[in-house]
């Protein structure tokens, strides 16, 4: 007679949960993270109780992907204009120029913010169709909207006022809705809910706060959930991407070993375009950690004219390029 195997309820429950989780992770595609849980199968051995597993599930969140029609839930009337760049014509939805002088005011005056840089991105995407754009800090879509005409795009924007405008532009432009994924989150080194502030006359200057009220020449915008760069893996449609990162000094929190290593392990990222003028003023420890994240992966830093930067990082220009061999010309 076969011996009956008995186990305590909590032990059997734990084994069953672990079996289901491991089975689902095994079934996942190599570019898909089951429920955005960034843990390899072997690491599950460290979680030996149901409490540990439940805690891991509780601490993970999916990216907040929204539909282009989401702008309709926005109370404000959103004004949009038509612009042309590199023989592409597309809508961009803007702010009142009084509250957004640089970007919206410039567009109203016929000036495209970072026109040269955006044009270079488009050339790269046309040369290498494998590359998609991951636009972290997308604002109203100056990079994302034209890029979506030629490649796949993930647009990450935590400021709902800007995301609503980007969503409406995608809705109006029937040619890009299938190419662009809108993510209403901030990218950081933790998963949390934080307040956001924005400049009085510069809505692109939207930043995370550890307080409830913005002080100085800024206004409190809204709460937003932060996710990890690794959490975007399940949304990727290609194994190669260019990253554009403009997060108002939060760049050193975007690229850490615990929050971004899996993304770089799985995705070929030949170029990262990063705003540098704010983050370079952070603590030496944080800046060195950011730089070493790239140096340890074989990247070299350049200015936007493709000149290698060998001086002290505090002298680097407003925008820098982290490029990986084989070097591509931006």
Report the average pLDDT across residues.
81
Assess the beta-strand content as a share of residues. Answer: 15-25%
What order do the strands of the largest sheet run in, or round the barrel if closed?
1-6-5-4-11-12-14-13
The figure for the number of domains is 2
The amount of helix comes to 25-40%
CATH homologous superfamily of the largest domain, by name? Vaccinia Virus protein VP39
Tell me the major beta sheet: 8 strands, mixed
Uncertain residue segments: 1-61
Write a brief structural summary.
The chain has 330 residues and is α/β, with parallel strands linked by helices. It contains nine helices and 14 strands.
Report on the architecture of this protein.
The protein is α/β, with parallel strands linked by helices. The chain has 2 domains: 51 residues, no CATH class; 260 residues, Vaccinia Virus protein VP39 (Rossmann fold, 3-Layer(aba) Sandwich), CATH 3.40.50.150. Helices cover 28% and strands 23% of the residues. The protein contains 9 helices and 14 strands. A hairpin with a 6-residue loop joins β8 and β9. The longest helix has 19 residues. The chain is globular.
Question: Any descriptors?
Answer:
single chain; about 325 residues; alpha/beta; 2 domains; eight-stranded mixed beta sheet; four-stranded mixed beta sheet; 9 helices; 14 strands; about 25% strand; globular; disordered N terminus
Which helices and strands occur, and which strands form pairs?
Blueprint (H helix, E strand, L loop, with lengths): L8 H19 L22 H10 L5 E2 L12 E7 L2 E7 L6 H8 L6 H13 L3 E6 L7 H4 L5 E4 L3 H13 L7 E4 L2 E2 L5 E7 L6 E4 L8 E10 L12 E6 L5 H4 L2 H10 L1 E8 L8 H12 L3 E4 L16 E6 L6
Parallel strand pairs: 4-5, 4-11, 5-6, 7-10, 11-12
Antiparallel strand pairs: 1-6, 2-3, 8-9, 8-10, 12-14, 13-14
């Amino acid at each position: 007679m076969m011996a009956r195997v008995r186990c305590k309820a909590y032990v059997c429950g734990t084994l069953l949960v672990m079996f289901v989780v491991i089975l689902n992770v095994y079934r996942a595609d190599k570019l898909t993270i089951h429920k955005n849980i960034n843990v390899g199968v072997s690491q599950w051995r460290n979680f030996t109780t149901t409490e540990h597993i439940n805690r891991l599930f509780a601490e993970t969140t999916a990216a907040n992907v929204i539909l282009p029609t989401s702008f309709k839930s926005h109370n404000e009337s959103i004004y949009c204009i038509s612009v042309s760049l590199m023989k592409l014509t597309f809508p961009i939805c803007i702010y009142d120029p009084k509250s957004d002088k640089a970007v919206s005011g410039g567009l109203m005056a016929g000036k495209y913010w970072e026109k040269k840089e955006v044009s270079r991105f488009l050339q790269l995407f046309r040369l290498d169709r494998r590359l998609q754009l991951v636009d972290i800090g997308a604002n109203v879509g100056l990079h994302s909207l034209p890029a979506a005409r030629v490649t796949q795009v993930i647009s990450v924007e935590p400021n709902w006022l800007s995301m609503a405008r980007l969503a409406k532009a995608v809705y109006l432009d029937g040619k890009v809705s299938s190419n662009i994924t809108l993510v209403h989150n901030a990218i950081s080194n933790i998963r949390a809910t934080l307040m956001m502030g924005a400049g009085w006359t510069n809505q692109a200057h939207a930043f995370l706060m550890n307080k409830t009220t913005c002080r100085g020449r800024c206004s409190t915008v809204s709460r937003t959930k932060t996710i990890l760069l690794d959490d975007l893996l399940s949304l990727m449609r290609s194994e190669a991407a260019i990253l554009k990162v403009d997060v108002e000094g939060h760049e050193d929190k975007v690229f850490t070993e615990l929050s971004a290593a899996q993304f770089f392990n799985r995705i070929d990222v030949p170029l990262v375009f990063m705003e540098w003028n704010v983050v370079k003023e952070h603590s030496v420890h944080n800046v060195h950690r950011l730089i070493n994240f790239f140096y340890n992966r074989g990247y070299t830093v350049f200015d936007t004219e493709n000149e290698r930067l060998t001086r002290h990082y505090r002298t680097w220009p407003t925008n820098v390029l982290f490029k990986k061999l084989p070097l591509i010309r931006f």
